[in-house]
Write a structure and sequence with these properties.
The protein has 162 residues and is of the alpha+beta class. Helices cover 25% and strands 22% of the residues. The structure holds tetrahydrodeoxyuridine.
Length: 162
């Protein structure tokens, strides 16, 4: 037996204004997307903005349901819409943010396990890293260079090959 350790690394920015202009613009689109959330149950409004290789941006927000598990996270709403509207077009980056229903302050958010798995599928499908930009604690911003970093030992299409 041997112990194996895996660590993750990411960039942490002090504020939105410190981001590269492209990341900042994408995050601002995620903020506007959060305004379209339907979150009457959790009051947690999430916005995601997906930047495609062709320059298009597809936005999504969480859409809840009285039957709670039937709702969907902002990231999957946006990524699936991008896949449906622009089939075969690579995803370059995804910005994610969240606010309570007073829409007052950007909150720390990190994609749930299901969204990580879905984003990882697109990374694997297009053999291209997806940059993740997300709001973190006290106005800071986390930038992660690929989805794999957030999903070590992931299950993907390679596992299904004989
Ligand atoms: N949610 C997202 O949309 N994305 C995340 O990254 C975390 C959670 C949503 C799901 C649900 O509508 C609400 O936030 C509370 O969990």
């Amino acid at each position: 037996m041997k112990k194996v350790t895996s660590e993750i690394s990411y960039d942490l920015y002090d504020s939105i204004s410190d981001l590269h202009v492209d990341d900042r613009k994408l995050l601002e689109l995620a903020v506007s997307a959060a305004g379209t959330a339907y979150a009457p149950y959790s009051k947690f409004h999430v916005g995601a903005a997906v930047l495609l290789e062709n320059g298009e941006v597809v936005k999504g927000s969480n859409q809840e349901n009285a039957a709670y598990p039937s709702g969907l996270c902002a990231e999957r709403v946006a990524v699936f819409a991008a896949g449906a509207h622009y089939p075969g077009v690579k995803i370059k980056a995804i910005a994610i943010t969240a606010m309570f229903d007073d829409l007052n302050e950007l909150l720390s958010v990190s994609p749930c396990g299901d969204c990580r798995q879905v984003m990882a599928e697109y990374e694997h499908r297009y053999l291209a890293n997806i940059r993740l930009i997300m709001t973190a604690e006290n106005g800071t911003i986390r930038v992660i260079h690929d989805v794999k970093t957030l999903l070590p030992l992931m299950f993907n299409a390679e596992n299904l090959k004989k």
